[in-house]
Design brief:
alpha/beta, Rossmann fold, 5-stranded parallel sheet, 5 strands, about 40% helix
Length: about 240
């Protein structure tokens, strides 16, 4: 197993920091970390995203999974702009997978995962932890450079170089990305086996004022496809269903 996959070994009571957005992937990752026996610490970011409904989802999930401590950190990346998630750039709608994979999408937030992992690393070190979990996966890394296995491996190297515990050799940092090689359908099946209530999650990049999902952005389409391929019904509330 490489560092980008999770180990089947149960590590009872060992602390882990989980990046928890409130979405499908991060909630499944949280469930995996719990199933391995880690003591859970979750961190979410209020970074100026349009879909801030995900933060309440993250709070609910953290409570439901018995997280020891959950931090929601304000880190306003909208001051930089450059992304459809943090500026007035339109969120793409109705794209097929081929179109999604043609180039890095405008929903890419510059250096987001690097920034988030760096903050999570700082908190983890203060907790005496050296395990960080995040929910990047194969469906995303064709379009997002900070979801690639090479990025995860490189950040793990950085963590072991840039921290006191790493430099002194008192801890060996591991960046766990247990979903990295899974499809959305496989993620959903695994999450359901681990007790994830996907009705609690928020995925949509462009929800309406009530938090209902658009059903047309890349995130919604990949989620809907994942549930269909898993043979399950998506419990998310979609705008189209509310208008009929």
């Amino acid at each position: 197993m490489t560092s980008s996959t999770h180990n089947s070994e149960t590590i009872s009571g060992r602390k882990a920091v989980v990046l928890l957005s409130g979405g499908l992937d991060s909630s499944t990752t949280l469930a995996i970390a719990r199933s391995l026996g880690y003591e859970l610490y979750a961190i979410s970011f209020d970074y100026g995203q349009k879909h801030r409904f995900e933060l309440q989802a993250a709070r609910n999930l953290a409570q439901g999974f018995g997280v020891k401590s959950h931090i929601v950190m304000s880190l306003d990346l909208s001051v930089f702009g450059g992304s459809a998630l943090t500026s007035d750039i339109a969120v793409p709608k109705g794209r097929n997978e081929e179109q999604m994979e043609q180039s890095i999408p405008v929903t890419y937030v510059p250096a987001r995962n690097t920034v988030f992992l760096s903050v999570a690393m700082g908190w983890a070190e203060s907790l005496g932890a050296s395990d960080i979990f995040l929910g990047v996966n194969a469906v995303d890394y064709s379009g997002y450079p900070d979801c690639r296995p090479e990025f995860i491996r490189s950040f793990e190297t950085l963590a072991n170089l840039a921290t006191k515990t790493g430099a002194e050799g008192t801890a060996k940092w591991k960046i766990h990305a247990p979903l990295i090689e899974l499809t959305k359908a496989e993620i959903i099946r695994q999450g359901m086996e681990l007790g994830v209530d996907y009705a609690m999650t928020h995925t949509c990049y462009d929800p309406d004022s009530k938090g209902y999902a658009c059903g047309k952005c890349d995130a919604c389409l990949l989620r809907l496809q994942g549930f269909e391929q898993a043979g399950e019904k998506d419990p998310a509330v979609y705008q189209a269903a509310q208008s009929t």
